[in-house]
Amino acid sequence: MVPASWPREEPLDERLLLIDPRALTLRDARVRDLPGALAQGDLLVVNDAATVPASLEAVTARGEPVELRLAAHLGDERWRAVLFGAGDWHTRTEHRPLPPRLSAREALLVGPELVATLERVDPAQPRLVDLRFSRSGAALWGALYRHGHPVQYAHVARALELWHVQTPFAARPWAVEMPSAGRALTWSLFGALRARGVRLAWLTHAAGLSSTGDAALDAALPLPEHFDVPAATVRAIAEARLARRRVVAAGTTVVRALEGCARLHGGELVGGEGTTDLRIDRRFRPRVVDGLLTGLHELGSSHRELMHAFAPEPLLARAWAHAEQRGYQDHEFGDVCLVLPGLTPA
After folding, report:
1. CB atoms within 10 A of CB 112
2. Distance between CA 30 and CA 52 in Å, rounded?
3. Which residues of 209-218 are buried (b: 16+ CB within 10 A; e: fewer)?
4. What is the DSSP letter of 91?
């Protein structure tokens, strides 16, 4: 499948592949057709995390160039990050040179007013580090937005600006990469969904890095991620369940937040913040989510593994072959699919 190299001018024109794991059927549609695929009373849950400029150019005390790619906010001025060697997004991540070997207490100069000091280097994955910035609060956020850039990959046609990697409803700056399943969900589409009788709910989940180019490190993704599930969303899900309506997650991050939250509380969904290390694969049986709106993810990725919790592999393989034959595009600016049992007929 060919990666999408740039966002479409009209998100509602993006292709939508409808996958029904109950009927074992596939159907081509557009994102603008999403309201017709859902039923009155269904609940669509979206991730409202805004994307931060998580790629930072830095140099070591010896003058060696390093890219600091933020992976998770650990609180205050502390972050977890992945280190890359010289180069930039024009080079595929798997072809980037390794960063210099660094140890705890070494400092990286990000800008004249911002230094990152390594607190911990992972013994198994030395590119994965915990660090502390020299600024905190508003001063730190200001420096990150001055010096940082969006994380991007070599399949994108040109340099991204921060507005290219935001969903229309982005709120708190928690995500280091865009929760891309929500990118095409425009406010006009929300209006059409409401007119259809589909309910909407929100949560915030700190979407992490999708790839580092290091096979061993990528196998550990996703790293633990922070979430906040509002009490109103918990109530909306309970009401949908009581009415025997379906809960649809807009993106794998929403699945991880809801299922991770329930797992932390013995199977019960409880409002509030938390951190989940939940890895969802074909053995997992969702307790909260019935269906998934997501991008088209390549075989072997953690996102593709998560999809196996919602549909059998033979159906997903058939869906991917169909999508490739019909010219669907993948990656963060690509087309999407809806995996949901009992899809409304065309």
Report:
1. 8
2. 29
3. bbbbbbeebb
4. S
**What would the pLDDT profile of 64-80 be if each residue is shown by its tens digit?**
999 999 999 999 999 99
Average predicted confidence (pLDDT) for the chain? 94
One domain, residues 21 and 77: no
Phi/psi at 205 (5° precision): -135, 135
pTM score: 0.95
Give the E-state strand segments of the chain in sequence order.
2-3, 15-20, 25-30, 43-47, 50-51, 55-60, 65-75, 78-84, 107-111, 114-121, 128-133, 148-149, 173-175, 199-205, 225-229, 247-250, 272-276, 291-295, 329-330, 336-339
Is residue 195 domain-shared with residue 335, that is, in the same domain?
yes
The pair of three-digit structure tokens given for residue 169, joined into one six-digit string: 């409803």
Instruction: Please give the sequence-ordered ranges of beta strands (E in DSSP) within 39-190, or none if there are none.
Output: 43-47, 50-51, 55-60, 65-75, 78-84, 107-111, 114-121, 128-133, 148-149, 173-175
Three-class SS state of 167: coil
Torsion of CA 18, 286, 200, 316, to 10 degrees: -10
Query: How many angstroms from the chain centroid is the CA of residue 262?
Result: 19
Query: Is residue 156 one of the residues assigned to a domain?
Result: no
In angstroms, what CA-CA distances link 113 with 83, 110, 134, 141, 307?
20, 8, 8, 12, 43
Distances (CA, A) of 210 to 72, 220, 285, 331: 12, 11, 23, 10
For residue 12, how many C-alpha atoms fall within 13 Å in the half-sphere facing its CB? 10
In total, the chain counts a number of residues equal to 346
Of the candidates 184, 155, 149, the residue with the CA atom closest to the CA atom of residue 168: 184
pLDDT band at 163 (very low <50, low <70, confident <90, very high): very high
d(CA 281, CA 8): 31
Q: What is the CATH number of the domain that holds 96?
A: 2.40.10.240
Count CA atoms within 13 Å of residue 336 on its CB side. Answer: 30
Distance CA 240, CA 41 (A): 7
Structural domain of 265 = 2-51+165-339
Other Cβ atoms less than 10 A from the Cβ of 92: the count is 13
Structural domain includes residue 239: yes
